[in-house]
Amino acid sequence: MSEKKQIALLGSTGSIGTQTLEVVAAYPDKFEVSVLTANRNADLLIEQAIAFRPNVVVIADESLYGKVNDALFDADIKVYAGEEALAQVTQMDEIDVVLTALVGFSGLKPTIAAIEAGKNIALANKETLVVAGEIITKLAKEKGVNIYPVDSEHSAIFQCLVGEFHNPIEKIYLTASGGPFRGKKREDLLETTKEQALKHPNWEMGAKITIDSASMMNKGLEVIEAKWLFGLKNEQIDVIVHPQSIIHSIVQFEDGSMKAQMGLPDMKLPIQYALTYPNRLKTDFERFDFLNYPNLTFEKPDMETFTNLKLAYHAMEMGGNMPCVLNAANEVTVAAFLNDKIKFLQIAEINEAVLKGTELLKLPTLENLFEADSKARAMASELVTSV
Ligand code: NDP
Is the CB of 351 under 6 A from ligand 1? Predict the structure, then answer.
């Protein structure tokens, strides 16, 4: 068996995916990729496959199978296509860890398949835990699978908890940059363009999460993600706006002591920690200099302007199918905003209408959640076309 950690990298052509490959390339003696996957970006997938030589690649869009297969025909790399293949390849024997960097609900099935096969998960795809946190964490426990957070805030909490196994958490604070519209009020955001919303002050990310950051839905999804990752009660999770994005999150213990994890924002650090925990690898990432940041500041989040954050807390408190419904509505509204079909503030308005229009199902099965996702998408799409 290989000494190197064998990684199945789902979503290799995205922001997290490409940064994960930078980490892999930096430590060729530690990591190898067995699987690379993309949705439609066949050109980049082919380029990555030639550079990293995985055993398998999957292109989710079946119409692109021929193109990828032709390009990799002589390279001794198996090529598969479609949603089913995406889930199946996570179960290959040689895989040690599945890094899920897919975006949205598409991450759910492959993550379940990987856990079923006993593979550890490095989780970037927060939507999976938002949609089915209870089912996923229960299944992971049954199968003895670890879920290592990649999201920087959750990685920060995870890092603060090292050595604290027996000490209960009193509270966590997830930090939020506040995004490009921090300090703005609703009347300032009436004519917001997607170009403005896509300009995040501190992080370079995929389009969906960048819009979610601008609307603060990202923080809402992270609150729900944290609940499941760390087994917290709703009231133990707080959000604090910290515009410099240096403190990545904070744990408060029962004696009142607080531990924070900090550093310059760079997703490669949490990605690599999720792959090397409990060890740390030496890096040449730029180091934080206190004198460049004489003021680290903190503010209360403005939930009256950024109502998506309030909606996420509400969905979490209702529980059951509601986080899944909110996530589905949000995927539709964000896509509609990116396609110039709705205005920025309508993202949260439609999300709220879909939540209000859905009946609570307290203990949903996985099947119920797939159904809830489809219905919420249909309802949100209808509202998008009627505005
Ligand atoms: P990107 O949009 O940059 O990349 C998404 C990846 O998933 C791409 O490889 C894309 O393929 C693939 N993909 C998209 N839709 C599908 C689908 N339906 N089926 C199969 N593959 C699909 O996203 P990010 O890398 O920004 O984010 C990935 C996840 O990580 C998200 O859940 C996000 O919330 C989370 N995250 C991201 C951070 C970041 O800094 N970017 C930080 C923390 C968390 P293709 O390129 O072909 O479209």
Answer: no
